[in-house]
Amino acid sequence: MITRIxxxxxxxxxxARVFSILRTAAAAQPIPPGMASMSxxxxxxxxxxxxxxVSVWSDMAAMTAxxxxxxQEPSWPTxxxxxxxxxTVEILETVATxxxxxxxxxxx
Length: 108
Prior knowledge:
This protein is α+β, with helices and mostly antiparallel strands. It has helices at 15-28, 60-67, 98-107, and strands at 2-10, 35-45, 48-57, 84-93.
C-alpha cells in the first residue's frame, strides 16, 4: 500500500472558502480505482491553518494512474490552488498494517 500526504498552508482568511469547496468536491467525486481511503484534515501551526490530505492506495500504479504524471506535485480541487501559499507531498510505502501487528501480538 502507498500513503500520499499532501500538506498545504492556507492563505489568511481562506479557510471557510477552502473547506466549503473540499466538502462539495469530496461528496461529488467518485472514488478512483485503487484508492483505499482518503481524509482531509487541518492543523494549526502558529496562526497558520495547514490543510492535510492523506490518501491510501493499493499500489503505486493505481495512484499514478489516478493522479497522472503530476503525482509527485501537490494537487487540489479547482478553486483551492490560489488559496494555498505553500505545499508539500510525501509518499510512503506501507511496511506493516494493523492486521499484521495484531497477528504478531497473538502469536508473539
